[in-house]
Every structure is written in C-alpha cells, then in structure tokens.
What we know:
Blueprint: H1 6-16, H2 18-31, H3 37-47, H4 59-67, E1 71-76, E2 86-98, E3 101-109, H5 120-124, E4 126-135
Antiparallel strand pairs: 1-4, 2-3, 2-4
Helix pairs in contact: 2-4
Amino acid sequence: MNLNAKQRVYKILGENACYQLCLTRIAERVLGLPIDDYKVFVWGVTSGVIGEDCYIFYAARLLEHLTVDKWEVRKERPEYKCQENEFEIQRWEWEEVITGKTIVHSHFILPDYDPLEPSETVKNGKMVSKRICRRITNG
C-alpha cells in the first residue's frame, strides 16, 4: 500500500478505522490535544500495530505511542461497568440479510462518540462486547 496516497488512505480510514478512531479520541482526551488520524494510521501500519485494512493488532501499543504512558486493553462483556480510571469502547454487531445472505457488520464506538454517526450498525444491531482501556502508568 502506498501510504502517501492520502485520498486512498482517507477512504480506508472512513470505511474501516472505527476502532483506531476511538483509541485516538481516548488519547486526545488524556493529552488534551488533537491528534492526526492519518499520521496515526501511517505510524501504525509501518510499525505493525495496525493492518492495512485498519485491523488493530496491538491496541495498548497504539495508546502507548500516542500518550507515552503504559496501557492495558482488555475485552469485557457488554454488561461490564467501567471503573473511574477506565475508558470504554463498545463493539456493536448487526446481522443484515441481503438477498438471502447474512452479512455481519461490526462497529466500534465510545459511549459519547460514534465515528459514523449515525451508524446503521448501532441503530439496527446490539452491543456484543467492550474493550476496556486503562492507563497503568503516567508519563
């Protein structure tokens, strides 16, 4: 993939980067500064943290790169209640039947931020899990 082809990269981000965008918003809240999603993606792909399809291989490493703090990211059930020092990313799924075939859509959001707002997956689906992000050291 040519990471300098910005329009192509932005198209990929728009279609697939919901988890990355949620992680970046968490880092922005911690730092109190805006973060460039394009630069995050380029760093993530070149460092092996993010796949070219926006799959996040190492969420904690991404947060560590952005904030310089150590992080723990774990998967929890939808019923899990966050502690005061945790950030919650919700994973939603929607099973859509198109011409007899079931397509499973998935989407990540923060409780107060949806990268695709309004998201059809959130509107028509259900929350299936949470990713809980906890900073374990302060830089």
